[in-house]
Protein 1
Amino acid sequence: DAKTTQPTSMDCAEGRAANLPCNHSTISGNEYVYWYRQIHSQGPQYIIHGLKNNETNEMASLIITEDRKSSTLILPHATLRDTAVYYCIVRVAYGGYALNFGKGTSLLVTP
Amino acid sequence: NAGVTQTPKFQVLKTGQSMTLQCAQDMNHEYMSWYRQDPGMGLRLIHYSVGAGITDQGEVPNGYNVSRSTTEDFPLRLLSAAPSQTSVYFCASSYGRGNTEAFFGQGTRLTVV
């Protein structure tokens, strides 16, 4: 699976959009981009995933650049409950099972 | 539908003791796995299973055993606990090997003294 690079930490004001970037410059054509988050002391929670098209669900939007070398997770209206560590993971859809969690981005949403 | 249930939530062991961390899922998921998370680090895969009767090693398997006799259950056994196994353990399950999301339990916080 391709390696990902994320900023260590970010801040966002409550009610504003949180934009979390992820670089995955070595991604290959059959690898998907997944986002998970981990709220303090809880198990990771799936957010969204995509291949090359932008995706949106009730939690977030995922914007993948045309060359697929980077992506951005967007939380449109961040709340205090969105404070968590966000993990960007690249994996082959029908390859190995493991999710390669790095250190992620620690997002702090402030009042 | 309870999802992925882990027991116990907290455990303190003495060095050399053995114990089993329980994991059960009620979603009829084919894939199950165990991760450990050490302070300030991401999750690392210990063992995983692609179905009943089939298990394999992950990144950090030493000191742990697993078995999968049913689809629902995937226990993790520590044969002789060591302080280096102090960690938070997460169990996860997913429907298949393809393009699917993984569901995680709430974790077991283990301290070995």
Protein 2
Amino acid sequence: GENVEQHPSTLSVQEGDSAVIKCTYSDSASNYFPWYKQELGKGPQLIIDIRSNVGEKKDQRIAVTLNKTAKHFSLHITETQPEDSAVYFCAASRAGNTGFQKLVFGTGTRLLVSP
Amino acid sequence: DAGVTQSPTHLIKTRGQQVTLRCSPKSGHDTVSWYQQALGQGPQFIFQYYEEEERQRGNFPDRFSGHQFPNYSSELNVNALLLGDSALYLCASSLRTAGTYNEQFFGPGTRLTVL
């Protein structure tokens, strides 16, 4: 079945450092890859997404890359700040003609940014 | 503009009981998806409703059922509760657009504890 693996499970960095989280997906038909940030006691919040026709996307300090051949995608956060501390989830989805899609999530990465 | 709302926030039940969780989608959205998030894990897709019909279903037993109302709000019902049903139940809403990617917005979740 569909599966998304995510690494590392925990990541500790110093403020100002960069953080990289990597995911691998199994369903070669996946074509939409969102990243969510989940803070304690809250639901996941979309922070950036990438579609299969794009190799890289950037939004201020956040960037995502996609390697369709290897079925890998990664989240890059530069100049980390303490407020970036949260659990980050990658997800993969197959968006088809029906407009109905389900998200398959990774297991999450707990990012801790120390001042 | 209200986002996705869920009720109740927390719920404690005993094994064998039945529970109903409620979700109101973001204004303008017509599709509701439900996810189960066990502690320390990523969300897992339960099912998705559109036009009051179940459109997709994940690998969950028939004890999990749902409903969507004409105003697009939704309920998740779980019968014969097991200890393993203890989790955060997340509702996500989206606007169905055929042939493209439909961003899913998540609510804060309902924390269900089964004793």
